[in-house]
Predict the 3D structure of the following.
Amino acid sequence: MPLLLHGTVLRSGRFPAPHAFTTRLGGVSGGPYASLNVGFRKGDPAENVVRNRELAARAAGAPGAVVALRQQVKDGVVILGQAEEGDALVTDRRGVAIMTYSADCNLLLLADVKAGVVASVHASRPGTRGRIAVKAVEAMRSLGARDIAAVVGPSIGPCCYDIYGPVLDDWRAFGPRFLSERGGKTYLDLKAANAAQLSEAGVRDVEVCDLCTACRADWFFSSRRDGDESGRFGGLVWLE
């Protein structure tokens, strides 16, 4: 399902909560972090990232500054206000925009607007292996969510995400249906893996974005494509 570009951010046409996925456009960072890098990275001054987050919030139409965690590339889920480190942020507070950020990993946005609960999830390969999507749904339900919608945002696609060695062995045991063979390499479909976990957790409306971050250098940062010196784009969601 395609997302639609609104200025410098992307939005779903059917996700029920106000939200946005940022692109790399419209920021103040330079070099390999040009220009809207929303993740604190060695080589990009912190003041640039702070300013970029302000610009991202403005471009998204978010209420005030965004709130984000110090991400761990694991499967920790945090209810807003309970911790500062993790890879998924859940809240029932209105007027607070929450964000996770990535340079290839899945960003998942979840919402039950009627119950008043939303989540932003950084679903890396290790996080997906740890079933972070399921854990985020469980955390939302602990706050009263019942009818949850989700969008699986831009990330590296099975066109580009080849895995090998112990990682491949692990995924052959954990999720072989998300692997495909081509040209002597094995590719992982991380989006399909997270969409399946959301469905298994009882999320009935799961939209999957078809954009590959490694393919679209014009819109996205990609650590697989560009290496460690790569910025981060974000997934924002909030309750009005």
